[in-house]
Amino acid sequence: DTLYYAKSLINATDPDSVKPYIEVAQTSITNYIAENPDVDFHEIERLFGVSVNLVEASVYNPAGSQFMADISYVDMAGQLASAVASDKDLYKNLYTAEEGKVFGPVSLSDGTVIFVKVLASDPSVTLAYTMSELYEQYAPLLTSYDAREAILLSPKHENKFTEKFLEMILPGIPSSSESAGSASDEASSGAGADAAQDV
What we know:
mainly alpha
């Protein structure tokens, strides 16, 4: 753990100092994968001192919907999710590539370099059930949210909530826009009077 945090600190504060080591490791791993098409990533972990994270298949089409769970649901480390967020082609290829296909190297914004190997895997039954339950509960809310956002973000929308609210709760009290208009009129009148006096 101490070594891990030391590496993280160096990478965060002085990334240029570790670049040469990352580049050497990246080239070595790339060559090793090219020479060993059926590479076992745990062997790479042992040989090169890197970390291997297993990301299970994300759940597709829960509850008979068109919703597709994001990789972040199953990527505990978050590195693969970060990679596909900036590379849509990689995202697509992960779901269409044949078993055993290796992608990489992929450089992340934090200086990490990852390789991805596609494995055959069945979606998690537990996660599939959870996503189905959540979808049934949240689908109506998401529809309402999308409709509300479409209205609020429309260039034709004018937010007069406070003004109308005060008109209903405090009738007879001038709204902020009316008060501003009166103040402007008074200021103009005053300025005119002062000007007349100066003349």
